[in-house]
Design goal:
Number of helices: 0
Radius of gyration: 14 Å
Distance between the termini: 41 Å
Order of helices and strands: EEEEEEEEEEE
Structural class: mainly beta
Shape: elongated
Strand content: over 45%
C-alpha cells in the first residue's frame, strides 16, 4: 500500500518563506512526475509546480521566481520551497505523485492528505 505524507505547512507572515515536504512510502516500483497542488478557500485546486523523473520543472505563473520544486529520489520525497509569500498563497497544499507500485496495481496518481499554509498580511 502506498502512502504520501506531507509536512511543513503552517502560519507564515507575508514576505516569509516555507518548505513543504512529501514522502512516498510503501511498495513502490517507480516514481514518475511529482507535483504540488493548492486549493484556496472557495477555489478550484490548481497545479503549483511539477518535476519530472528527469528533473524537468514547471511552475504556475503566479509562483514562478518565488518557488522551487525539487526531489530526492533516494528518499522518494518531493519538496516545495516558496519565498516572498503573499496572502494569496494561502490554501491547502497537496502533493500528487504519479507512480507505479509493485504487484498488480496499475500506475496511477496518488494524493497526500494536504497541509494548510496560511500567509498573514
Amino acid at each position: 500500500q502506498v502512502q504520501l505524507v506531507e509536512s511543513g505547512g503552517g502560519l507564515v507572515q507575508a514576505g516569509g518563506s516555507l518548505r513543504l515536504s512529501c514522502a512516498a512510502s510503501g511498495s513502490i516500483y517507480k516514481i514518475y512526475d511529482m507535483r504540488w497542488y493548492r486549493q484556496a478557500p472557495g477555489q478550484q485546486r490548481e497545479l503549483v509546480a511539477a518535476i519530472t523523473d528527469g528533473g524537468r520543472v514547471n511552475y504556475v505563473d503566479s509562483v514562478r521566481g518565488r518557488a522551487f520544486i525539487s526531489r530526492d529520489n533516494a528518499k522518494n520525497t518531493v519538496y516545495l520551497e516558496m519565498k516572498n509569500l503573499f496572502p494569496e498563497d494561502t490554501g491547502v497544499y497537496y502533493c500528487n505523485v504519479d507512480l507505479e507500485p509493485y504487484g498488480l496495481d496499475p500506475r496511477q496518481d496518488y494524493w497526500g492528505q494536504g497541509t494548510q499554509v496560511t500567509v498573514s498580511s
